[in-house]
Amino acid sequence: MRKSHPPTYSLFSSQFLLSKFLLIIVASYLSACSSNGIKGLVEQPTIQVHKVEMGHFSLSGGSATFVLDIQNPNNFAIPLTGLDYGLRLNGVQVAEGVKEQRVTIGANQSQKLEIPLQFSFSNMVNMLPGLLRNRSLNYDLGGSIHLPWFKIPFNRAGSTTIH
């Protein structure tokens, strides 16, 4: 009786090449969805700054929390794996980082995501003249939210008054 062996595939077999070709097509399709979405089929999530909670400010540094509102306009849930961000206050780069957080946003729902930030004394010194002169804090928060297969960039700017 002869033993049967499982089939082997070479790097150039038609099944191997076909599977790689299909993988490339699916990846291209998903990256096209990430830039604009496909109206009626897959829509890009929208990202808004829900609020900015100012923490303490002292000579040693300061803190703030940016709360993002991420809205899923699709008829299916989307899984977030995290985000990367950078923050400029009054024109000075004060923070950047990556936050890994797994969150699933339900179909046609929104989710709030907090980004806690710490500022150093040296960054505070650079932005202090504008802060004292105008009694306002201009922010520019940019980065991207991470989905399993691609990233969606965001950039939001605004200002808040310091009392």
* Biggest pleated sheet: 4 strands, antiparallel
The helix fraction, in percent, is 10-25%
CATH topology of the largest domain: Immunoglobulin-like
Q: Structural class from helices and strands?
A: alpha+beta
**Number of strand segments:** 7
Residue fraction in strands: over 45%
Determine the N-to-C terminus distance.
89 Å
Overall, the morphology is: elongated
Q: Can you identify the CATH class of the largest domain?
A: Mainly Beta
What is the tally of helical segments?
2
Low-confidence stretches: 20-35
The total tally of domains equals 2
What is the CATH architecture term of the largest domain?
Sandwich
In the sheet with the most strands, the strands line up as: 4-3-6-7
Give Rg in angstroms: 23 Å
3D structure, described in words:
By secondary structure, the chain is α+β, with helices and mostly antiparallel strands. The protein has two domains: 12-42; 46-161, Immunoglobulin-like. The chain has two helices and seven strands; from the N terminus they run H-E-E-E-E-E-H-E-E. The protein has helices at 14-35, 121-134, and strands at 46-58, 61-71, 78-89, 92-105, 110-120, 136-146, 151-161. The strands form two sheets. The protein has a four-stranded antiparallel beta sheet, covered by helices on one side. Strands 1-2-5 form a three-stranded antiparallel beta sheet. A hairpin with a 2-residue loop joins strand 1 (46-58) and strand 2 (61-71). The longest helix is centred in the first third of the chain and has 22 residues, at 14-35. The model is unreliable at 20-35 (pLDDT under 50).
